[in-house]
Amino acid sequence: MSNGATALLNDLFLRACNMETTATVPVWFMRQAGRYDADYRAIRQKYTLVEICEHPEVCVEVTKMPVDKLGVDAAILFSDIMVPVGAMGLPFVIKEHVGPVIDTPIKSEADVDRLRLFDAEESLPHVMQSIRMLKRELSVPLIGFMGGPFTLASYMIEGSPSRDYLNTKTMMAARPDLWAKLMDKLADMVIAYGKAQVAAGAAALQMFDSWVGSLAVPQFRQSVKPVVTRIFQELRELGVPLIYFGVNTGELLGDFAETGATVIGVDWRVPLSVARQRVGQAVALQGNFDPAMLYAPNDVIERIALDILAEGTEQPGYIFNLGHGVKPTTDIGVLKHLVDIVHAYKPGSAHS
Ligand code: 1CP
Question: Shortest CA distance to 292 belongs to which of 330, 332, 265, 346?
């Protein structure tokens, strides 16, 4: 496949997303650009996270680091799920060791009405510019991403990271009309922003609905699944892989597969063979090495990785990843070793 200026595109990742059997299993890591890397930490001495996003040449450098250093088969745009929320008119800051913080969280109908849809090229020109530069410079596919509507709403309503999502769940239960309005507005943004990223050069999209697994199954079906389904139905016309990911989503995996996503992300709690039974045959799977096990001895890491690889490759359509993001204190050498284990694995050669 040709992508213009770059020599040869490594399309292993895209082929696995499209349910092809690949001789080598593709691998990338959520949060693969980040604080575990000393060069990233050095750049963060000079720029805040938001400033990195606002300087395309720095954003490109940070996005490419894990591709060059680890040999992963896909890059993920360096940004944050909150960047487009700022463009909707709800200012946020990323607080060190905390995460996104919003001083004026959403409480009322007027707050929801004030959120505006935006044109990505006009409001986030630096993000679009970074994607265009990455498309030219990368030899692997670029994954664009958005937050999922529940997860974005949780930050917008709670005003900071939360353990129990009390205000969010209360709005969902007590003001279903207002909740639906907020979900619809976020869905419109996610669809438009996803389309803009693909138009600029993203080869796949991942929707991070990280915290949606906090919902009861009936709540998910009633208050979130319809809007997630609308998002994926509308994005499907782009013809690129659409990955849907959250943690603690074991009980939701069957519903995830009905949303129109083409790849389902799985965390470490559910074995991939069980996940496969729950999602059926029509979607690809991505996951699910426990990021905490990157601190285990090498032989333990190898055993866990080989078990995951054997289960993942039982059927076509499998991408190796962690079950959630790389932790900031992870040893970069261990990540590299894990990439090598995955790339050396021959599907169909299950160990005993
Ligand atoms: O500057 C820093 O190093 C602060 C840590 C950090 C980083 C590296 C934050 C703050 N955001 C990011 C970048 C980021 N965020 C990426 C970069 C691309 C890559 O993966 O290499 C991505 C994909 C995200 C997406 C994101 N932001 C998610 C979904 C993924 C997940 O981990 O579940 C979420 C939930 C956020 C919110 C957020 N931003 C930052 C933090 C620490 C958090 C989580 C806060 C919480 O626990 O609620």
Answer: 330
